[in-house]
Input
Amino acid sequence: MYSFFMRLIPAHPRCGLRTPMLAALLALTLLVFAAATTPVRADDSSSFRWKSVDGAQLRLDDKVPLTWNVYQLDKKKQPNLILVLLGRRYLLLDSKAKLVYLVLLTDLHADGSDLTTADLANKDRLIPTTAWNTRDVGPAQQFQLTLGDYGRTLTVQLPHPLNLRLGIY
Output
């Protein structure tokens, strides 16, 4: 590669020598421009990585379901989105908009214990809900709502993240 750039640099008019430092500088400049213009994959920005929440609690009419799990996004950019496994179906809870979406199993891709998905908020899959209630219950944030298709009350508790600035461990 170095010899290729040496051929690109013309010889000095007086002595006929090429400057190796100039060839190295030209090679470095081209590498920097090539790295800066490398396209970013489009699927990185549109994919979401969900991690299981340790210490989360889920209840359906004050009873713990046999199969359940609670997931939140790996990056805490959207803390209002909660993915819930309830029996054999997944639900996406948007606590800010107070909406619940049905998530199809084909939309989920297992990555070890984590899940990878595209955007799950599809208006065609809205589940009717009523009686949204969000409150702080000490060490956790509680979301309570009534699912319209089940007619049952769903309660999800997510633990607060540790705040080491307060000195609470």
